[in-house]
Amino acid sequence: MSYAGPDFEPPQPRRPRRGPLTVALAALVPGALLGWLVYETVGGSGDTGGPDRASTSTSASAAPTEPTGDGKQPGPSPTPTASAPAASGPLKGKVVVIDPGHNPGNFRHPSEINRTVDIGTNRKECDTTGTSTNDGYTEAEFTLDVAHRMRALLEKQGAAVKLTQDGDRPYGPCVDERARIGNEAKADAVVSIHADGSGAGNRGFHVILPGSVRAGAADTRAIVAPSRDLGERVAGRFVAVTGSAPSNYAGDGGGLVTRKDLGGLNLSTVPKVFIECGNMRDSKDAALLTSGAWRQKAAQGISEGIVSFLRG
Ligand code: ZN
User: Fold this and answer.
1) Residues 46-59 pLDDT 10s
2) Which among 139, 179, 191, 204 is positioned nearest to 306, based on CA atoms?
3) Catalytic residue set
4) How far is the CA of 172 from the centre of ligand 1 (A)?
5) What are the chain's domains?
6) Fewer CB within 10 A of the terminal residue: the chain, N end or C end?
7) Over 70: is that where the pLDDT of 150 sits?
């Protein structure tokens, strides 16, 4: 918690507003011409347009959608007929739940987080504190930061994004509730963000897939296959964007691990994976995990995997 490193804020393009100037312009320029201007400025963009360009594109594209034709439209100038670019990306209509592992407040609530909950196969602690780097940068801080960066990226693609916690509650949620939040949101994909606390020298990331479980309230049979698909895509894009190697201590060498002991997976009824982004207790991995620029890449890699999964 004490770490206050070189943070690099996730790009949060403020949704641009139509300034009075643009409105005036829209009223003055005949429809056809404006349409052409819009075409020129916006081009095919949509996906990666930088924040600066955004202001021209939104204001412009809002105005002239009414076609070209007559040009003269008396009365109050054209209303921005919706079509906000954020809601119309390729993930429009998709719901993504991001589950930032642990909670910065868990340390202060040992009895609450140690109580056990039913995960179908057995009972397990509600939640845990998570780990930290040797310098005290906590996993909970890491997971929330990556989640925020992912939310910005995925919302830009048009997805509806929900976090299971946003540092907005004293502790938790418990693992069963984390699963329930994804289920009740009818999420198209859920990714739980973590970083590991293994021995020094153990390096790299791994993605955890649900094994086939049927016990008590747990029945993962329907999500095993789609979750594997999601996990493979997340792992692939994570490697590509961060350059990190798959774990040298967990899994099959390809960064994939299947587990049947995690409540957050056992109780999920929607495609879900965990990712351990690196090992906080290894100094080389810790140097990456504490870098804002690296976390942005991590968020991007995971998000690209989700996008790929959702687009099929
Ligand atoms: Zn964790």
Assistant:
1) 333 333 333 333 33
2) 191
3) 276
4) 12
5) 79-311 (3.40.630.40)
6) C
7) yes
